[in-house]
Amino acid sequence: MKKIFTLIVMAVMALSANAQKYFFGEGDVASTGTLNGKVYADGFVTLVDPAGKMAIDANNAYFGDADTQTKFTHRVKSGGKSQTAETKLNQIELAIAEAGTLKIYVRTGSNSATDRNLVVTQGESKLYDAVVKESDAIKVKGLDEADPDKETNIYPVVTVAVAAGKVVLTYPIGSLNFYGFEAANGATAIQTVKAAQATDGAVYNLAGQKVGNDFKGVVIKEGKKMLQK
Predict the structure, then answer these.
(1) What distances in angstroms separate CA 168 from CA 102, 154, 171, one per listed residue?
(2) Contact partners, residue 153, CB within 8 Å, separation at least 6
(3) Predicted confidence band at 4 (pLDDT cuts at 50, 70, 90)?
(4) Which end of the chain has fewer CB within 10 Å, C or N?
């Protein structure tokens, strides 16, 4: 029988009445170090782990950019690649309350892993499919009070435009580490996309963030929306 673990969502009123947020923390860690026997009930984040391979542990990481960073203290390890057979299905599901922007805080945790991709789907549509690499992190000084000159890795945030409904995260190549998720309603995302409709040849995602030509998904280029594969 499939085991489904649903994590409690923490509402963030400062973002909006419909914002959803979950960062993994100390209270999510089971005594065994795995999710076996630990069940949550809310509905935003669901960990589907029939083989009992997922685990939550303490792990410090920063996500953001050179100007703004968020520090995380815990993560959920997916425990291997997602499977296609229903009896072995390992994936993460998110219940999005309203169309807008989804932020995914994810990394591999392995410098040698250069082929592990994150796939985000909603219904029959693939919203995102790109490799997650540790080398994408930037280094920022001043985050360590004991050693201000020390450089700290800041990992990029995966940002995806989503509709209301279930979003599924899979990782067909290998294990990924997830630190948290945030979903904000569409007002901010729509305004940002309009501002990003430049005609300089640059490519933007639907959240208005500039992305490279290797970005896979729906993008804005020359003021037009297109699918970049």
Answers:
(1) 12, 25, 10
(2) 61, 62, 134, 137, 138, 139
(3) very low
(4) N
Q: Which residues neighbour 175 within 8 Å (Cβ) at sequence distance 6 or greater?
A: 77, 78, 79, 80, 81, 108, 116
Query: Phi and psi (nearest 5°) for 188?
Result: -65, -40
| Digit-coded pLDDT (tens) for 31-65 | 656 664 444 445 788 888 888 888 889 999 999 99
Q: Using 50, 70 and 90 to split pLDDT, how confident is the model at 173? A: very high
The reported pLDDT for the residue numbered 164 is: 94
Of 54, 2, 8, residue with least CA distance to 30 = 54
Q: Which residues pair with 203 in a beta bridge?
A: 211, 221
Instruction: Give the residue from 162, 175, 179 showing the smallest Cα distance to 121.
Output: 162
Asked whether the beta carbons of 125 and 213 are under 8 A apart, the reply is: no
Is residue 113 within 8 A of residue 106, CB to CB? The reply is no
Q: In 3D, which of 222, 211, 197, 93 has the Cα closest to residue 158? A: 211
